Amino acid sequence: EIGESVRTFFMFDDLPDDFTPDKKKAEHPCYERCSANSTVVGFNRMHWHSDLQFIVVSKGSANIDCAGRHFNCAKGCGAFFNSNVPHRIMSDAKTEYMSFIFPEKLLGFFQGSEMAAFGVSPFVGPRAQPTAHFDLAAPWHREVLDELVRARALLASKKATGVERYRACVHLLAAWSVYVLNVEQRIPTKAERATNERMKAFTLFIDANYGRDISLEDIAKAGNVSKAECARCFKKLIQTTPYAYLVSYRIHKATELMHEGELNATAIARAVGFGSSSHFSTAFKKALGMTPKEYMAEVRKPSNAGRPPLNRSFA
């Protein structure tokens, strides 16, 4: 089967515009998405958001790239991503993980509170620790993970009541309190913050221009740096080259078009920026282990109807 199971709990009132197919506002302060029923995926690509995020892997494992850190989350382990920090979660189709995405305001109880001043603000934003890895060795890591699993259990049913969703928020707050009481923050340096901002500029440029014939020089200009510095940023943050990331991005966009089922392989190759069908076919097979035509035949099987593009790293 093609696709990956991700359960995301959005802990706020207003959902992103592109979140649900019907684009309706959630009725409760927590909202669950299973990406197996959605075409909104792409966590293998560098991305960021203003909200905070916890994840817990429930099956398989995931490799994390975030702010120059690279670590593996095995089953039962998890991670934290701070606001506006570029990161990606790489895994294969057998991996399952739950994700909690929530705004800073959820943690402070009310605007201007003492709790927000001492228990939230020092740990959120570009001058706070960008990420954390929770394994099963440290007792306090287990506490964080246990609270998140309890929250997930309350939200597992689509018929979860308002009270159950409220209790889930309480467990999320408990996970956050354990984190802030125990974490020994490593504050990013000015140079590290600059690298993160450059990576945002690079990836935004690639997102807007992947269908064109773009060069390393073009990508570097987007971040106002030299080609050498651009390459260094990619190597440091995601352990790959700008070109390899561009190719992986194009292949991912190609899989999205294949799921839409409106174009043939040749047209898709042109649409995502490959100069020739042969180059596209070679790169695609190297990344996914099958040709574009084989992939298109696979996604059209009844068992894979409605599933999202394969969510994994190609670089």
Secondary structural class: alpha+beta
Radius of gyration: 20 Å
User: How many individual β-strands?
Assistant: 9
Mean pLDDT equals: 83
Distance between the termini: 22 Å
User: Largest sheet, if any?
Assistant: 6 strands, mixed
User: What helical percentage do the residues reach?
Assistant: 40-55%
List the strand order in the largest sheet. Answer: 2-1-8-3-6-9
What is the subunit organization of this protein?
A: single chain
* Discrete helix count: 10
The proportion of strand residues reads 5-15%
Shape: globular
Order of helices and strands: EEEEEEEEHEHHHHHHHHH
Unreliable stretches (pLDDT < 50, length at least 5) are 1-5, 12-42, 311-315
SSE map:
Blueprint: E1 5-10, E2 31-34, E3 52-59, E4 62-66, E5 69-73, E6 78-81, E7 87-90, E8 96-102, H1 114-119, E9 131-134, H2 139-155, H3 162-182, H4 190-209, H5 216-222, H6 227-238, H7 242-260, H8 265-271, H9 277-288, H10 292-299
Parallel strand pairs: 1-8
Antiparallel strand pairs: 1-2, 3-6, 3-8, 4-5, 4-7, 6-9
Describe the fold and architecture:
The N terminus and C terminus are likely disordered. With 315 residues, the protein is an alpha+beta fold. Helices cover 41% and strands 15% of the residues. It is built from ten helices and nine strands.
